[in-house]
Amino acid sequence: xDPTESIVETHRLREAQMLNAMWGEVPVPKVYWTxxxxxxxxxxxxxxxxLEGTVQPEGGDKASGLxxxxxxxxxxxxxxxxxQHLAKIHTIDWRSKNLTSYNSPRESHIEANEWSLGWWExxxxxxxxxxxxxxxxxxxxLRENMPTVEKPVIVHGDYxxxxxxxxxxxxxxxxxxxxxxxxxxxxxxxxxxxxxILGTPMDDxxxxxxxxxxxxxxxxxxxxxxxxxxxxxxxxxxxxxSYYKVAVIxxxxxxxxxxxxxxxxxxxxxxxxxxxxTGVSALQRLLDKGS
Length: 291
Known about the structure:
Layout: H1 12-22, E1 31-35, E2 45-48, H2 72-91, H3 111-127, H4 133-144, E3 153-155, E4 164-166, E5 172-175, E6 182-184, H5 186-193, E7 200-201, E8 207-208, H6 215-226, H7 232-259, H8 266-290
Antiparallel strand pairs: 1-2, 3-6, 4-5, 7-8
Helix pairs in contact: 2-6, 3-7, 4-7, 4-8, 5-7, 7-8
C-alpha cells in the first residue's frame, strides 16, 4: 500500500502492469489485485503472491541493501543470474505486453530521455528545500548532451542488491521494486546498477557491483546475454544521470519527507540526505570530466 509519503511518488497501476508483463519472463511475485485510486481501502494498493526467500544475507545488513556484502560462494552462485535477468528485461518485446499506463517513446529519438529527465527535474523543483548549483548545472548538461534512443526497452529503474530475493538453494526467485520502471535506454539501468556509490567496497580497494561482481565483468556478461553493445559515451551520459537522480532523491525528497514526518522511515530518510551529498560530489567530478 502506498505510504503517506515516500522517496518517489509512483503509481500502483503502473507497477501492477509491469509485474504482469514480467510474469513468466523473469521471477516476480504474481499480482492478484490492484486498486490505483483507493476506492476499496481508502488508499491505493497492490496485492501480490507471497514468496519465501532472502533479501539480505546474514551479516549483509545495509539500509535498503545499498553496499550489501555477499560472501564469496553466494556471490559466485548469484552473479550470473543477476546479469541474466537484467538482460532478459531489456530484450522483452514490451509492445506485446499490456502496458497501457506507460508512454511509448519513438525509436531513434530523444523522446524517451526527454521524458525521463523531465520527470526528475519536476521532482527536484517540487521537493528541493533550496537551490543547488551543481544539481541545476547537471540538469542543464543532461539536456544539452541528450542522446537518442535507437530502440527503447523496459528499464527497471532500481536494479541492484536489496531489490532481489533468493532461495536457500541460491536461486533468485523475485526481482522486486518496479516502481521506477519505464521505457527508455538500456544504458540507464547499466549505469545505475554499476554506480560506484551503490556498490560494495572490498578490502583490496575495488568496488563490486551490487556486491556480486566487478563493473567490467558485469558489462561483459550483460553484452553476452543481451546481445546489446554497450556504448561508453552513452554510459557516461547515464553515469551523470544516475548521480543526478541520487541527488534529487537524497537531498530533496528524502529531506522533505523526513522533515514533514510523513513516513515511519524518518531515520532512513535523514540517512539518505547525507548520502546525497556524497553523490553530489561525484556528480561534480563527472561534470568536470564531461565538460
